[in-house]
Design brief:
about 130 residues, transmembrane helix, mainly alpha
């Protein structure tokens, strides 16, 4: 038996790459948020707000990545905003200095720049406006 032909356009590789990078970002922020939550519980709740912010970024990145893969039109805008905000935050963190910000910040800059590039190529724009 052969499968019925589909009328959906094929998903561009740039959309898959952007979603994958957002899932990686979500994993990193989820890990950082859980570490912050454990440390804040151990030291009297000083980092609870930061942990909640990290978990919010995790949720937004997962939701945006899933919606990119399904072809939802607003996901491109959400990916642009999320990657832009994370780029600015990473830039500020790098400007403050320190070895930790270099180790974490440089890959973060590359990942968010790649997300911005991937969702703004012509094939991704065409796919995400249907």
């Amino acid at each position: 038996m052969t499968a019925a032909p589909t009328t959906d356009p094929p998903r561009p590789g740039s959309v898959i790459a952007a979603a994958t990078l957002l899932f990686i970002t979500a994993g990193l922020f989820g890990f950082a948020g859980s570490v912050m939550a454990m440390l804040s519980a151990a030291f009297g709740g000083a980092g609870t707000g930061s942990a909640l912010l990290y978990f919010a970024v995790t949720g937004l990145a997962i939701a945006t990545g899933v919606r990119l893969l399904t072809g939802t039109s607003w996901a491109r805008t959400a990916a642009n905003v999320l990657a832009g905000v994370l780029l600015v935050a990473t830039g500020i963190r790098l400007a403050n200095g320190g070895y930790t910000s270099l180790i974490v910040g440089i890959p973060g800059l590359f990942m968010q720049t790649a997300v911005l590039c991937c969702v703004n190529v012509r094939s991704a724009r065409r796919y995400l406006t249907n």
